Structure formats: structure tokens, C-alpha cells
UniProtKB/TrEMBL annotation:
<dbReference type="InterPro" id="IPR032675">
    <property type="entry name" value="LRR_dom_sf"/>
</dbReference>
<feature type="domain" description="F-box">
    <location>
        <begin position="89"/>
        <end position="143"/>
    </location>
</feature>
<dbReference type="Pfam" id="PF12937">
    <property type="entry name" value="F-box-like"/>
</dbReference>
<protein>
    <recommendedName>
        <fullName>F-box domain-containing protein</fullName>
    </recommendedName>
</protein>
<dbReference type="InterPro" id="IPR001810">
    <property type="entry name" value="F-box_dom"/>
</dbReference>
Amino acid sequence: MSTTHERVISMVDADVVDRWLTESRSSGCSVSRGRRTELSALSANINRELASTDSGIRDARTLLADLKMQRCALVTVLDLVNNLHAPVRRLPVEILTMIFYLCVSSGRSRDKAGIFDAVRIASVCASWRKTALADTRLWTDIHVEYMWDSVAADIREREMVQTFLLRSGTNPLSLSVMGGISAVLHEPVTLTVLRNVAPRCKTLLLLDVDETHYDSLMSVGDGFRPTSLHIGNRLMENALDLDAISFKSSVERLRVTLVGGQYDSEWKTVDCLDIGDLGTKSTLSERLPSCTSLRSLTVRFGDSTITYPALVNNSLRLLEVILSNPTSCDPTKLFRNAMLPKLQHLVIQGDWTSWDACCHHGWNDAVRMLTSRCAITSLSLNGVYGTDCCLVKLLEALPLLQSLVFIALRPERTVVTQNFKAVFHRLTFRNFGDRAIGNPLCRYLTNLQVELNNGYFDEGALADMIMSRSRLLPYQQLWEWNKLRHVVVAVNGGYSDVGPLHELGHLRNTEDFTLLVIAPNHHSTQSTLISAIKYQD
């Protein structure tokens, strides 16, 4: 019996299997009775051992499943522990709320009314969702795009608007409505919800909305009184007459990019006007809306601009000119008959990569023509320069300048490499013995903000200029020149903390002088520097 047991135990060995295979082949067709008895006992033992093995496999599988479940539970607990230990958990709820708000209210997010970023934030985790739902400001931008497409899309839009309306609390709302090529074939059920939106709507964006879409939207009642209105149409078949707008008296900020420039209405309360388009079609007209309270005007010139608005206004203080290319605007035609007696701030933006020679004289002469009728004290330039000589001549046309913002183009986007050494030298206050080289530019400058690229500007010349303007000599005080009080230098491209600029560190502690040298993200700095001059009074 022991021999049989040993055979069963060793049945898994390869040699044993080969032996039994050989015996099976050599035994032929006749097996003795004793041999059959022995094989029967052996077969029974093998079956019992097989049953025991199957039972062990089932137990092992059960144990493996339990271990896998235990492992998943441990991984879940570990993730929760790591989440609780993560640096983001150290942020106070107030800081996290502010981050969420800045994300949703950013320009990139607001292209779609912030709706998608708000939903994404609330879908990350339970704690973020709780924080997002607790801040009603995240849900104040409503985007309606498909309510005229179909009944099914209209129902989804209504549910979305209802959700945002509920989550926004009592905050003012921003409503974006897209018309597109969809015809108004049914009365959208979303309009029933928009009746509650209209009284709280402070910003209204009408994109590709024709008169049919507008009439359908206004059917909710006479509740719209937005203070900010943006009307943009890129579809030639869509046309909206501004005379049809029924709430002109409440609008303070107006942006219009209608194809054909249908500006035939009176907008007496508009404080900020943005007109034109940077696309291939011209959307400017000769006549601007009459705005007796207008303080800020943005004019955008596309590739094929042939019409120039008559710049005549007695209240305008800020003029922003945005160009798609150097030839999209003739400054002489723009400023020839301009009458802007209260204009103080001039902003010029554009990508002038193709200007590889000293050919900005048209702008210099045009700005000089403009300043003969007003006193411009603030200038912002973003990418609009050709050579140092061009920039010097432009500054010569602005003798009363007090604030200057200058953002240089990236080196890979320019035709000619500039170091602005000549500009910095002309801005430097020389001592009395050096005055023979010429009078400095912008003698009344107090605020300077520049964004330059590492390796593409003369740092020593810039540092000398800042140093010379940080204090006034007696004769400079006698002539009532101004010294710099606020200087921001942003350097792109791996700027190190050594060099002539950082040797001016002792000036940072001066009571009446602020110096900030940073190496920030390009796009965020650009918007910051432009805003610094654009929105100051």
C-alpha cells in the first residue's frame, strides 16, 4: 500500500509519467487480474488526490480573490491618505476658492462663458465639488448655443441654464447667445428660463445673431438691461441692425464687430467702445456711434481695412489701436482729422515682424499730428517697432509722456535683431557736462514698464538709464524734470540674478522709488503690463 501511495505522490513527476506511458504501450491487449486490481486501487487513490488538489485550487482562488480585494482596499485607503497629505490640502478654502474663480473668469475660459471649466472643477472630487458649489460666482456665466437647433438640444440647454441659475445665487449674470445658421423654426423652451435670467443679466454677448434670433430672444419680455454688450457676426447672411436694440440706454461698455459696420444708433451712455475686427473682412465704418460719455475707444484694423472712423469726441481719454499687420492701417488717415482734446492714453498693439527697416515715419508724423490737439501722457506699445531709430522718433513726438509700457517681440518673430541701446541712451539723464549730446527723451516720465528678451537688449544701457533717472540733479529740478518712481522690468528667457540690473538692488529700498525685475510667463506679463496702462485714469 505504501508503494501505491508513493506512486500517487510522485505521479506529478515527469519520469513517472514517461514510465506509465511506456508500460501502457508495452502491455499489449492483455492485463493480468492481479495487475488490474493493483491499477484499480491506484486509480482510486489518484481520484482522491485529484479531488484534494481541486479543493486546494478552489481554496487558493478564494484566497487570491480575498487578497485582491484587500489590496484594492489598501490602495484606496493609501490614495485617500496621500490626498489628505497632498500640498493642495494645505491651502485654505478661501485660497482654493479664489483659484477656482480666477480659472473660470480667465479670458481663455470666458470664450465659452466659463461653463466648461466650472463643470470640470466640480467633477474632480467631492471636496472640490463642495467648494465649487459653495462659490456662486463660478456659475454666473451662462452659454446658450443650441436652443434653436432642435427640440432635444433645446431641452438640454434649458436644464443647463436652470442648473446654473440655481447655483449662481443672486449674483449678476453674463449671458452668451449664439445664433449661427440655425433658423428659428420653433419657440425654444429655454426662453422660459431666460425670463429669470434677463433681470440679472449685466453682460450680454450676441454672436452670429440675426434679427430673427434677436426677436426670439427678446420675446421673453422687456427685462434685459445689460451694462456690457458684445455683438459679433462673422456670417455674411446674418445681419443685426443696431437700431433694433431696445436697451441702448443701459449699455456702458459696447463691443461691435458686425460685418459692414452698421453703426446707425445713438449710444449716449457708452463709456467703453470696442469696434472692428482683426479678420479678413473690414467691419469699420466712417461714423461711430454717438457717445457723449465715451472714455475708452478700441479700434481694430483687419487685413483689408479701407474705411477709417472719424475720431471726433470731447470726452475720450484712452485710444487703443490694434493692428493685424503693419499695412492694415494708415496712421495719417486715422489721425488726420482727429479731434480728441481730452485724450491722455494711447495704446498701440500689433505684430510688426515684416518691418525690417526704418520705415515708421508715418506713425511718428501721425502721432505728432495727434498730439498737436491733445496732451498724451501715457503710451503703451506692444510689438510695434522696426528699429531703434523708429522708436526714438515716436517718443520724440510725445514730449509730455509720463507713463510708458513697452513689450518687445520674441526674437524668433523679428526680422532685425534689436538691442534698444540707442533708445536707452536717449532716455538717460546726463550730467550737465554731457548735455552737448542732446536733450533726453521723455523728461517727465515717472512710470516705466518694459518686457524684453534675454540676450536681446543692452542691459548695461538700461541700468544706466534707470540709475540716472532715480535721482535729479539741481539743474534738472530747476527745469522741473521728473524722476522715475515706478519701474518694472520683465525679462523672458532664463534670466539670471546677476548683472547690471541686479546691481540696482539698493534702489528698491528707497522710500519714493519702486524697482521690480522679474522673469515671468510671457503671456501673463503681457496682459498685466498692457492693463497697467490701459485702465489707469
